Amino acid sequence: MHDWGTSSQQDLQVVLLHLRNMSSIRKYLTTNAAHTFVHAFISSRLDYCNALLYGLPKYLVDRLQHVHNSAAPVVTFTRKFDHIIPMLIDLYWLPVYYRVIFKLLLLTYKALNGLAPCYLSHLLSYRSSCYSLRSVTNKLLVEPRAKLTTYGFRSFSFAAPRLWNRLPSDIRSCSSVASFKSRLKTFLFTLFLDNRKFNWLFHFSF
């Protein structure tokens, strides 16, 4: 079995090294240059295959969030002990667990629109009824039951439909990847500002 603890710790050590290097030269960088550096060396590494983080224990995801939080004051040129939420809002950065949801839903959108590998597309199917076409029109998916209480709910075939069906219909009906990404991020960022609503919609926990 893949050791997520060891793997994530090794990745975080590399990311923290990049962050320390950036901190030492931050005063010579413009804000745009700092954004580019963080995206290239830190965010891209934290986001790599992060859909696989869905359902992992909270303490593992918190490690990634700690690094993500450490990058924010470097970019904004503020003190590292300042409150993190205003920084994330100012930078328009989604917290790590929202980024996990974002990636999983983006994969779902691509799978439904022929932009992902067939093995993912075959795991999804629209709801249909001989009495009503409403589910198909609203692009709702069949939500299968998880076979295993420990790992089954983390599988793409279970998690993707469950999250997808909780999106507003206008997001599910986006006509392009760019439009979907933009609306989805806005939607998740709004939920980030109202965490109670996020929990009610997604019942997401690690």
Shape: elongated
What is the number of strand segments?
Answer: 0
Measured by DSSP, the beta-strand proportion falls in under 5%
Describe the main β-sheet briefly.
none
Helical content stands at 55-70%
Low-confidence stretches: none
Radius of gyration: 19 Å
Q: What order do the helices and strands follow?
A: HHHHHHHHHHH
Class per helix and strand makeup: mainly alpha
Question: Distance between termini?
Answer: 19 Å
pLDDT averaged residue by residue: 85
Number of helices: 11
Structural description of this entry:
It contains eleven helices and no strands. Helix 5 runs antiparallel to helix 10. The radius of gyration is 19 Å and the shape is elongated. The relative contact order is 0.10.
Briefly summarize what is shown.
With 206 residues, the chain is mainly alpha-helical.
Throw out a few tags for this protein.
206 residues, 0% strand, 11 helices, mainly alpha
Helix-strand layout with pairing:
Layout: H1 4-25, H2 31-47, H3 58-76, H4 84-91, H5 96-112, H6 118-121, H7 134-137, H8 156-164, H9 169-172, H10 177-193, H11 195-202
